[in-house]
From TrEMBL:
Keywords: DNA-binding, Transcription, Transcription regulation
PANTHER family: TRANSCRIPTIONAL REGULATOR (PTHR33204:SF29), TRANSCRIPTIONAL REGULATOR, MARR FAMILY (PTHR33204)
Transmembrane segments: none
Name of this chain's protein: Helix-turn-helix transcriptional regulator
All copies of domain HTH hxlR-type, residue ranges: 8-107
GO molecular function list: DNA binding
SUPFAM superfamilies per UniProt: Winged helix' DNA-binding domain (SSF46785)
Amino acid sequence: MAEQKLDTQALEHCIEMIGGKWKPIILFYISKGTNRFNKLILVIEGINRQMLSKQLKSLEKSGVIDRTLYPEIPPRVEYVLTSKGKSLLPVVQTMNRWGKKQYAVKTKTPEPPKNQQLPLF
């Protein structure tokens, strides 16, 4: 019973860190080199500035990403994965592969039956 509780707590911890609609997507794009706020807002369809800011702050607080502010005019901010964030990439990649397979099944149009004779009347 104690092991089941530990398993549940471990899953809850993982979901707290990367759960929700946006965090895995943000991690995916940061891992691909899209690490500036304005680039992220452009490539992530459907997210608004407020939500992106909130999710980035949450990921930073969890230690999954690092935020670097460069003292320039205008200020430049970049996000990179920490070692903890990099350790999550296999999870995000597995989610991506699974999602691609499920999406392909969902959008596949049924083929008409082969070698079936049409009714005469």
